[in-house]
Automatic annotation (TrEMBL), chain A:
Xref: InterPro entries: DCTN4 (IPR008603)
Organism: Pisolithus microcarpus 441
Entry coiled-coil feature ranges: none
Stretches with biased composition (Basic and acidic residues): 224-237
Keywords, comma-separated and alphabetical: Acetylation, Coiled coil, Cytoplasm, Cytoskeleton, Isopeptide bond, Phosphoprotein, Ubl conjugation
Family indicated by similarity: Belongs to the dynactin subunit 4 family.
Name assigned to this protein: Dynactin subunit 4
Subunit annotation: Subunit of dynactin, a multiprotein complex part of a tripartite complex with dynein and a adapter, such as BICDL1, BICD2 or HOOK3. The dynactin complex is built around ACTR1A/ACTB filament and consists of an actin-related filament composed of a shoulder domain, a pointed end and a barbed end. Its length is defined by its flexible shoulder domain. The soulder is composed of 2 DCTN1 subunits, 4 DCTN2 and 2 DCTN3. The 4 DCNT2 (via N-terminus) bind the ACTR1A filament and act as molecular rulers to determine the length. The pointed end is important for binding dynein-dynactin cargo adapters.
Subcellular location: Cytoplasm, Cytoskeleton, Microtubule organizing center, Centrosome; Cytoplasm, Cytoskeleton, Stress fiber; Cytoplasm, Myofibril
Pfam families: Dynactin_p62
GO cellular component annotations of the record: dynactin complex; stress fiber
TrEMBL record, chain B:
Listed SUPFAM superfamilies: Actin-like ATPase domain
Database matches in CDD domains: ASKHA_NBD_Arp10
One Pfam family recorded for the sequence: Actin
PANTHER family: ACTIN
Extent of Polar residues compositional bias: 316-330
Domain of life of the organism encoding this protein: Eukaryota
Protein name: Actin-related protein 8
Family statement: Belongs to the actin family.
Gene3D superfamilies named in the record: 3.30.420.40, Actin, Chain A, domain 4 (3.90.640.10)
Organism: Pisolithus microcarpus 441
Span list, region Disordered: 1-23, 278-330
Length: 541, 594
């Protein structure tokens, strides 16, 4: 989507370079983020993004019932909600618990249930696709604690039983081999001399038995017949609990049945999708109708830390229902918010008049030297800031140049809405600055009669709008996308600089306040270039 | 090699002095392990440090979960939008393009890895050891990316790389066998003896999932039928049969083809008619289109699919009007004949799918209908079994090739413990068919048709697998759901075929990784300290002049891989043993000599 502006986080760039990659590379998009996704570490004085912060879980909750799950049961329940939350195996909608119809007493009149919980057995029912759990034979005696009622099936799942058996199968073997190798390999004397330890280890390694290859024994070697190859491992044969070869004969499908099912199926609808069965480590039926309800996976509340200094950047409140944060160092509170747009010129208006089409066509025209765009900067700080924009020089001969006001300009302080009762003051102050700016910024532009395009165009409250121009070469096609360094100077509340001055806060107040500068990179995307012919034909349509 | 690969015995007692810190840590955590819910001051340690995270990062589908569990917690496409593989078999040759490709790949891997810990597993990576299931031919630069992301960005305490083939064997309770992994990019066969992968005997073929997909897609474009949605809901529309057109290119999105592949396709038994089609067979009279001879078939069908892998989109758009356009007439008319033949003998039903119509046809009247002919569903997988090419042997041929390389006294053992894993092996009917194909490929080649040319007797046909023929009674696929044991099968084959637990082929490697995690084996651990040490010292030494070669060497010293094995601790024997560039370790040599 264009026009857009994104902020750079240097975490992906190698070591010491802070300049962002050229925006033409597809990989550069991973380094740029929109402002609301970024954090700001006060300690490191740096922007941090979601790709580099380290994430810590500060609590688990079920997204469906918002129950805060204690960590102890998170592990046992495998990150799933252990209450009544299930999702539909077909459409992933949340299932609701419904009671069965009351029994017909023969009189034809509906029997009013004694209470509003209805009759057992209870079912899980999907309000979206009408799937219900009785299709796979799952019903419940009581309408609460469904997960616990299903637990016994899960505990006896064939894959976990087989898994335990496999573990038992390997454990003695491993124990034996670790014992033998530890006695072989770590002789207590080997620590005395480095050389001796090396040779000891080497000789131990050499003398160690290789399982399956018996010690050289000429008699056995010459005369052992066929049986020599039967079992070369030291391992005993593993006897499976459920053999895959017998699986099909147990009545629950199997490979042949699957082939037959597929051979005669008419619609793909009755076959479960890959996504619906790829988590099953155990051979299961392909039929959609045999899918079982899924327990809803838990979500976690996370706090994020700066990867460098480990300070917390954002920390949510503990309660699952709360959407507030205890700590929140969002970059939006530190960096000026930039937004980019096009002025309502004739061409742009015409393009906008085309409706949907104008979204696909560029506003930038090839062969035109003054394609105008605007950047609006919003100051989130309580003090005015001085901003300086410097678009990165495009050196690789791409066909456009960007002109922006290169001299610093100011943005007013952020103030809460109710503080704007006294507008005159602000405008007085702004006016001389504006005059100064305009005079400086448009000194040379005036001569050519387009002072209005480049320079500070508008200033109100804590927003300043500056205009820029793009000169696109005739032959250039592609995106107009460039990196831009934004530096801003602000008055620091930080007592740090004045500490060497014997820490007298009064002096800091009296003197001109300490000033600091912060710079960050952005990428400005002005969309694709439209050739003149295209745009004319578009306007004729 | 013993120190590097996952030998259960080598692992539990690290022999190198550098590994001592780890040993003590393991010993310490054993105590912690004793009480499952030990209390710590750290709030979020739900799991002991020995509960490892097991990640099986396929090029297309990732399987992730915790060690000690019987099934993964989460399975997802590595590229959730197009389900494209993250990496392929080729890299750009131009250095700049390649660097950009690598950056993109690393970004994607990082994104996936972060989501594994933060979204799938909801756990803190800083206290989770990781077992990374690796394919033996996973490119080293990708392996290094995994290490960089895990150590650098996520700061996991340690990584163990474990070969997928060995882990698959663990999941069926064995440590010896011939494992064939039929995945997306490649089919790789690796013999493993006593938990030691015999890497030099690795054999691969690109006939695997992605080739199957492109073949299926090409067949659908040629022989599939498509009915656009009704133009108008009020007027009575002609019946479906009258609205059928060829399949437009743009509706066959990657996800749709994937859906057809995973929900509609299956593997049927060998197409006998192809043999019987010779004049002696009575069926010939029925078939109007004489299919070309066997060898011709092999060449043209695979050629066709190979072409389809690269440039089908354009060529098929241009050849819309008729099935046999002038471009590539040979293969297309052959395919038409094959299609006729398959149609005639296929009992599989046609399947109708509702598909999103192309933008030009979206009138708000619902979805179009795609009809997948039954024979495509049944026979698309033939491409995997069609051998004859030196570089792209059929899936059965690579198994035999690997067996040819295996030392003679291990061949019987290997032949009778074949394990088939990988996502493509999930096709119903794949494994029984593979068994049949094995026997077919090993059978003596038929006599050439023209017995003599220019009066000279024809040379005897090249009999590649004659050596292996005594193995026929021993062939047994461990996880064959329909074990074909005959009276002639050896007792070992009978004892092995179909005796594996019914884990699905696609997840065997993950389950094995989970077992390795639970049993605390599974590859040499690379500790983060080692990684950090190497890279921080490097930064201190020369902050400005870090050359790519330097970091390459560092990585090499830290990340083990069988292709660059430094001689293990017992390396003194290397001088005694016959030197061979391929033999990676004294063990393999010992085995070879035994």
């Amino acid at each position: 989507m264009w026009p857009s502006i994104q902020y750079y986080c240097p975490c992906l760039s190698s070591a010491n370079t802070l300049t962002p990659p050229p925006p033409v590379l597809a990989s550069s998009s991973a380094s740029f983020h929109s402002l609301h996704n970024l954090y700001f570490c006060e300690e490191c004085d740096a922007v941090r993004c979601n790709r580099c912060v380290s994430v810590e879980v500060s609590g688990y909750y079920c997204p469906n019932c918002l129950f805060e799950v204690p960590s102890a049961s998170v592990r046992a329940e495998k990150n799933r909600c252990a209450r009544n939350c299930f999702s539909c195996p077909i459409c992933r909608a949340t299932l609701s618990v419904v009671a069965s119809d009351p029994p017909d007493d023969g009189t034809g009149r509906p029997v009013t249930p004694l209470n509003n919980v209805g009759e057992a057995p209870y079912l899980l029912y999907c309000n979206y696709c009408r799937w219900d759990s009785s299709e796979v034979g799952i019903t419940f005696e009581k309408p609460t604690g469904l997960a616990a009622q299903l637990q016994k099936y899960e505990d006896s799942a064939p894959e976990s039983l087989e898994y335990e058996r496999l573990k038992e199968h390997f454990e003695p073997f491993l124990r034996a081999s670790s014992l033998s190798s530890s006695t072989h390999l770590l002789p207590p004397t080997s620590h005395h001399l480095h050389t001796s330890s090396a040779t000891a280890a080497a000789s131990a390694a050499l003398s160690r038995d290789i399982p399956g290859i018996s010690k050289y024994n000429p008699v056995a070697r010459s005369r052992s017949g066929r049986d020599r190859t039967t079992n070369k491992d030291e391992m005993p044969e593993y006897k499976s609990r459920v053999e895959v070869g017998l699986f099909g004969q147990l009545g629950s499908g199997g490979d042949d049945a699957d082939v037959e099912l597929l051979r005669y199926t008419e619609t793909a609808g009755e076959i479960a999708k890959l996504e619906q069965r790829w988590g099953n480590s155990w051979t299961t039926s392909l039929r959609m109708s045999e899918l079982r309800p899924l327990r809803i996976p838990l979500h976690s509340k996370v706090s994020k830390r700066c990867p460098a200094c480990r300070h917390i950047l954002i920390k949510p409140e503990q309660k699952a229902q709360s959407v507030r944060y205890k700590i929140k160092l969002a970059a939006a509170n530190y960096l000026p918010a930039l937004s980019v747009g096009f002025p309502q010129t004739q061409a742009a208006k015409r393009a906008a008049g085309k409706g949907a089409d104008s979204r696909n066509a560029g506003v930038m025209l090839a062969g035109i030297t003054n394609n105008a765009f605007r950047v609006a900067l919003t100051n989130p700080l309580y003090d005015p800031i001085q901003v300086r924009l410097s678009p990165q020089r495009v050196t690789d001969g791409r066909g456009f140049q960007v002109s922006l006001p290169l001299t610093p300009f100011s943005i007013g302080a952020f103030a809460e809405a109710w503080e704007y009762d006294d507008d005159e003051d602000m405008f007085d102050m702004e006016d001389d600055e504006l005059g100064l700016e305009a005079g400086r910024g448009s000194r040379d532009k005036d001569a050519r009669g387009r002072a209005k395009n480049v320079g500070v165009l508008e200033r109100r409250a804590n927003v300043t709008v500056v205009g820029g121009e793009v000169n696109v070469h005739k032959s250039y096609r592609g995106q107009v996308k460039f990196n831009m360094l934004v530096s801003y100077t602000y008055r620091s509340d930080d007592p740090l600089p004045s500490e060497d001055g014997a820490g007298t806060p009064s002096r800091a107040v009296v003197k001109t306040p300490e000033v600091k500068t912060f710079s960050f990179y952005t990428v400005v995307d002005l969309g694709p270039v439209l050739s003149k012919d295209d745009s004319e034909s578009m306007q004729q349509v | 090699m013993s120190a590097l690969t996952t030998t259960p015995r080598g692992k539990t007692a690290p022999t190198t002095p550098t590994a001592t810190p780890t040993t003590t840590r393991i010993a310490g955590s054993h105590i912690l392990q004793a009480s499952p819910h030990y209390t710590t001051t750290r709030r979020h340690s739900l799991y002991g440090t020995e509960d490892r995270v097991v990640v099986d990062p396929g090029s297309r589908i990732w399987k992730v979960g915790f060690g000690g569990e019987g099934r993964p917690r989460d399975v997802f496409y590595s590229d959730p939008i197009n389900a494209e593989p993250l990496w392929g078999l080729s890299r750009a040759s131009d250095a700049a393009t390649r660097a950009e490709q690598d950056r993109l790949l690393e970004i994607n891997i990082e994104r996936r890895m972060r989501s594994v810990f933060h979204e799938s597993l909801l756990t803190d990576p800083k206290s989770r050891k990781v077992i990374l299931v690796e394919h033996p031919l996973l490119p080293l630069h990708i392996k290094e990316m995994f290490a960089r992301v895990l150590f650098g960005n996520l700061q996991v305490p340690s990584i163990s790389f474990a070969p997928s083939h060995l882990l698959s064997l663990l999941s069926v309770g064995r440590i010896t066998g011939l494992v064939i992994d039929c995945g997306h990019l490649e089919t790789a066969v690796l013999p493993i003896f006593a938990a030691r992968p015999l890497f030099p005997h690795l054999r691969t073929t690109p006939l695997a999932g992605s080739r199957f997909t492109s073949h299926l897609r090409a067949l659908l474009l040629l022989f599939g039928k498509y009915a656009p949605p009704p133009t108008n809901l009020t007027v009575v529309n002609p019946p479906l049969a009258n609205r059928l057109t060829r399949v437009p290119q743009e509706i066959l999105t990657a996800l749709l083809v994937e859906d057809i592949k995973t929900r509609c396709c299956f593997v049927s038994s060998v197409f006998e008619a192809r043999h019987d089609i010779r004049p002696s067979s009575p069926t010939t009279s029925v078939s109007e289109a004489d299919p070309p001879s066997e060898s011709d078939a092999a060449v043209s069908e695979s050629e066709f699919s190979r072409a389809s892998a690269s440039d089908v989109p354009e060529s098929f758009v241009s050849s819309q009007p008729g099935a046999s356009s002038d471009s590539g007439t040979g293969s297309e008319s052959y395919l038409q004949a094959l299609a006729n033949l398959y149609t005639r003998y296929s009992s599989a039903s046609d399947v109708q799918l509702r598909v999103v119509p192309p933008i030009s046809q979206q009138m708000g009247t619902g979805r179009g209908t795609l009809i997948v002919p039954g024979w495509i569903r049944e026979r698309a997988a033939e491409v995997l079994f069609e051998g004859g090419d030196v570089d792209e042997g059929s899936v059965a041929e690579v198994i035999l090739d690997a067996l040819l390389k295996v030392p003679i006294d291990l061949r019987t053992t290997m032949a009778s413990s074949i394990l088939v894993t990988g996502g493509t092996a999930m096709l119903p009917g794949f494994i029984p068919r593979l068994h049949v194909e094995l026997l077919r490929a090993i059978a003596p080649p038929g006599q050439p048709q023209q017995s003599s040319r220019h009066g000279r007797p024809a040379p005897p046909p090249y009999d590649r697998y004659a050596e292996l023929r005594p193995l026929i009674p021993h062939f047994a696929i461990l996880n064959n759901p329909a074990p074909q044991v005959s009276a002639s099968s050896s007792t070992r084959a009978k004892a092995n075929a179909g005796k594996a637990p019914a884990y699905t082929p696609a997840l065997m490697a993950w389950v094995g990784g989970s077992l390795a995690g639970a049993l605390k084996t599974g590859g040499m651990e690379i500790a983060r300290e080692k990684w950090d040490e190497a890279f921080s010292s490097q930064n201190d030494d020369d902050e400005t002049a870090i050359t790519a070669a330097d970091s390459e060497q560092l990585l090499e010293s830290i990340i083990p891989d069988w292709t660059r094995i430094p001689l293990p601790v017992g390396a003194l024997s290397a001088s005694a043993a016959p030197k061979s560039a391929l033999a990676p370790s004294p063990h393999a040599q010992a085995i070879a000599r035994a």
